[in-house]
């Protein structure tokens, strides 16, 4: 299927051009091509000056990593292979609220606007606070250098493990 | 509608006879594989399963004993059978949810023959269940859908697929049509369909003697929803809102109506054991016929786009397009998977959206003051003539509230399903893996505890004072929640927001004297039990 290959190559080129930002997860960079340039690619922002982010995991341990401007906090978790159980289940598509993060008040104010859709999903987040946000909706910028994000307690696990250790 | 066939219905489909035995034994076999279940000595019904040996009160750190399913309240098997088969409970599933909740509490069990369904009618418990989901949640038994697809050599789509296969397709599709900002790019396409909707309103009312009435608005909204979702999925116009609907579109509508009207029969299609088919052939035949019709339509449109793309390639032109083009070009899913997903999405996207639009405009007509408030908001944000786009919607909180409130009062899917994939404790009861749960959206969204004056239509209740103001909860999740939630949610919202904004801006909507109080009935989906006739009169400002 030479045609299919050609088509694929063609669209790949286009996709690469259009997608600055890697979508978190399996289908990295899959965005609709052509006419609709869906994501105003943020790759112009991409540079080597990275942004430092501290995560505090559910055990209270602090994990310090770096991300690129334009990346979402979910991207950072995925790129850095951070193991927060169940985090970011819907791959940043605003369907799950498992990417819930808690900030201190000052940081919270710096995080930028919240969309209605994010607020709706936040309402369904477990352990919601006044300074909660969804990690997949927060884009890094230099001004966020050094922020601290806490992963909330996980949902009281109502699943019973099958080995009897409950 | 079809969503129905699988979602709510699935529970009921599963209930009947023979097939259940098969399913049950499958579940049991499954259970026996897991260490827990082996230790549990599962009885023939699964209901006695109580892991006393495994989970003691101390284990769960509480003082409350975990109860077994056997102890769970619920209607007797007999009364349930009478309710559903004798008194046609199927069309009142939503009301029965409420009645049973009052009688038996937040969690109760019902038995349909050998099939046990555990109903969850409390927002906190619904949250518990959905938050505990694994990586590929299962809604219901989709065997009959799979059987049809196997027979015809077709793939499953998101609704009918499970496990790995589902996750693979879901991962592709959610990157394309779930992010609000990606879907906002369809705004102009949808607005062209809204243009035609408005024209159609004018044409239809012009045929009535009062120059205002639209008979059975759902007919109109059905066409709008179909045209809208097809504009996105097929990247082409079907002509549903024209005076002359093209034949192939008409054929599709016929297939869809067949699926819908024969809802009960097709439901039995899955329930009647295969060996009985020679004796009772009709349900299965109709089921296959309607699927044939639905797939055929997709094939026509997808193949046409594919050959256009090939031709463009051959002429070495740049290939441009939207969703379908992207799928055909990237082939992240193979062609059969594309066919199946487009078919299932079209099926899931039409009646759901059109019923919601019908209810929304009915409610606006019944509550003129609310309509005036929304009209005031729309005109102050946009003036009389500006056409709203996706970017304007954040400035129209009452339009968003209108859609949320409509779906709260009339959740198109009055109940959803989940088959538990782990042993769970919910509401103090041990629920073994493989149990069919029914999440009772209708009763939670009309619960006074979650929504004061729950039966009032009040879009304002969804307005936030500021961004830390929390409004809703798991009481009203009409699109579901989590990784198996509605993939078309943002598309549906866009179609509804843009259509309703324009209708409110352009017309005053009133109830026709021909329509009084319209109740809901469940026909798989929650739909109007009688036709809704409305009057659309021009707002002075636009004339
Ligand atoms: C008012 C409109 C709609 C409502 C209320 C609605 C509601 C729902 C609900 C409740 C589910 C089940 C979610 C779950 O199990 O957690 C669902 C699934 C689904 N819906 Fe929608 N829906 C609507 C419109 C649409 C549209 C426009 C499309 C297609 C573009 C669509 C496609 C689907 C598909 C494919 C699924 C199955 C998803 C999966 O299993 O992965 N829906 N919908
Ligand atoms: S990852 Fe699901 S909402 Fe952020």
TrEMBL record, chain A:
Its main location: mitochondrion. CDD domains: fer2. It is found in: Mitochondrion matrix. GO terms for molecular function: 2 iron, 2 sulfur cluster binding; electron transfer activity; metal ion binding. GO terms for biological process: P450-containing electron transport chain. The keyword DNA repair does not apply. One of its GO terms (cellular component) is mitochondrial matrix. PROSITE patterns: 2FE2S_FER_2, ADX. Residues 51-155 form the 2Fe-2S ferredoxin-type domain. Keywords: 2Fe-2S, Electron transport, Iron, Iron-sulfur, Metal-binding, Mitochondrion, Transport. Its cofactor is [2Fe-2S] cluster. InterPro entries: 2Fe-2S_ferredoxin-type, Adrenodoxin-like, Adrenodoxin_Fe-S_BS. Belongs to the adrenodoxin/putidaredoxin family. This is Adrenodoxin, mitochondrial. It comes from Solea senegalensis (Senegalese sole).
Automatic annotation (TrEMBL), chain B:
One of its GO terms (biological process) is glucocorticoid biosynthetic process. This is Cytochrome P450 27C1. Keywords: Heme, Iron, Membrane, Metal-binding, Monooxygenase, Oxidoreductase. Its cofactor is heme. It comes from Solea senegalensis (Senegalese sole). It is found in: Membrane. The keyword Glycoprotein does not apply. Its main location: membrane. InterPro entries: CYP11_CYP27_families, Cyt_P450, Cyt_P450_CS. PROSITE patterns: CYTOCHROME_P450. PANTHER family: CYTOCHROME P450, CYTOCHROME P450 FAMILY 27 SUBFAMILY C MEMBER 1. Belongs to the cytochrome P450 family.
């Amino acid at each position: 299927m030479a045609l299919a290959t050609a088509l694929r190559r063609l669209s790949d080129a286009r996709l690469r051009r259009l997608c600055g930002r890697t979508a978190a997860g399996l289908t990295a960079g899959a965005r609709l091509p052509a006419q609709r340039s869906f994501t105003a690619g943020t790759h112009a922002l991409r540079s080597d000056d990275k942004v430092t982010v501290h995560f505090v995991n559910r055990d209270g341990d602090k994990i310090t990593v770096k991300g690129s401007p334009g990346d979402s906090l979910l991207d950072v978790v995925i790129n850095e292979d951070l193991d927060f159980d169940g985090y970011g289940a819907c791959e940043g598509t605003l369907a799950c609220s498992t990417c819930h993060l808690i900030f201190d008040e000052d940081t919270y104010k710096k995080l930028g606007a919240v969309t209605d859709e994010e607020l709706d999903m936040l309402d369904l987040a477990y352990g919601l606070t006044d300074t909660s946000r969804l990690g997949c909706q927060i884009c890094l910028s230099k001004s966020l250098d050094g922020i601290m994000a806490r992963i909330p307690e996980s949902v009281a696990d109502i699943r019973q493990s099958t080995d009897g250790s409950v | 509608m079809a969503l129905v066939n699988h979602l709510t219905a699935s529970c009921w489909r599963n209930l009947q006879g023979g097939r259940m035995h098969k399913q049950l034994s499958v579940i049991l076999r499954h259970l026996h594989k897991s260490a827990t279940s082996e230790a549990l000595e599962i009885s023939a019904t699964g209901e006695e399963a109580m892991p006393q040996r495994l989970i003691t009160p101390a284990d769960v750190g509480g003082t409350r004993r975990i109860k077994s399913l056997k102890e769970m309240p619920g209607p007797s098997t007999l009364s349930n059978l009478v309710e559903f088969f004798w008194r046609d409970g199927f069309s009142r599933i939503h009301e029965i949810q409420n009645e049973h909740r009052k009688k038996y509490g937040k969690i109760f069990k019902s038995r349909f023959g050998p099939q046990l369904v555990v109903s969850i009618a409390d927002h906190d418990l619904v949250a518990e269940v959905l938050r505990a989901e694994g990586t590929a949640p299962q809604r219901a038994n989709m065997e009959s859908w799979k059987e049809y697809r196997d027979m015809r050599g077709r793939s499953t789509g998101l609704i009918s697929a499970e496990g790995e296969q589902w996750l693979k397709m879901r991962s592709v599709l959610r990157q394309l049509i779930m992010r609000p900002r990606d879907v906002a790019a369809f705004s102009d396409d949808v607005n062209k369909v809204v243009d035609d909707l408005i024209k159609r309103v004018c044409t239809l009312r012009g045929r009535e003697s009062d120059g205002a009435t639209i008979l059975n608005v759902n007919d109109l909204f059905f066409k709008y929803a179909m045209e809208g979702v097809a504009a996105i999925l097929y990247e082409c116009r079907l002509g549903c809102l024209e005076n002359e609907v093209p034949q192939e579109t008409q054929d599709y509508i016929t297939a869809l109506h067949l699926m819908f009207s024969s809802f009960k029969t097709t439901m039995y299609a899955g329930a009647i054991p295969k060996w009985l088919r020679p004796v009772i052939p009709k349900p299965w035949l109709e089921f296959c016929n309607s699927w044939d019709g639905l797939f055929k339509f997709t094939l026509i449109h997808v193949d046409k786009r594919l050959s256009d793309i090939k031709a463009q390639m051959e002429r070495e032109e740049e290939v441009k397009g939207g969703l379908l083009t992207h799928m055909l070009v990237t082939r992240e899913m193979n062609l059969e998977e594309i066919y199946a997903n487009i078919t299932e999405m079209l099926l899931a996207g039409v009646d759901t959206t059109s019923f919601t639009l019908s209810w929304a405009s009915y409610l606006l007509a019944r509550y003129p003051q609310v309509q005036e408030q929304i009209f005031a908001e729309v005109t102050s944000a946009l003036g009389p003539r500006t056409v709203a786009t996706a970017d304007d919607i954040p400035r129209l909180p009452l339009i968003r509230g209108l859609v949320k409130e409509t779906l709260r009062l009339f959740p198109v899917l009055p109940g959803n399903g989940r088959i538990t994939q782990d042993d769970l404790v919910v509401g103090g009861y041990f629920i073994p893996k493989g149990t069919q749960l029914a999440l009772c959206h209708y009763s939670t969204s009309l619960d006074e505890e979650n929504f004061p004056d729950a039966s009032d239509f009040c879009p304002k209740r969804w307005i936030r004072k500021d961004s830390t103001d929390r409004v809703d909860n798991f009481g009203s999740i009409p699109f579901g929640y989590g990784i198996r939630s509605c993939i078309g949610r943002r598309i549906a919202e866009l179609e509804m927001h843009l259509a309703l904004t324009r209708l409110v801006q352009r017309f005053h909507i009133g109830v026709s004297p021909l329509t009084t109080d319209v109740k809901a009935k469940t026909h798989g989906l929650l739909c109007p039990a009688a036709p809704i006739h409305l009057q659309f009169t021009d707002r002075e400002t636009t004339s």
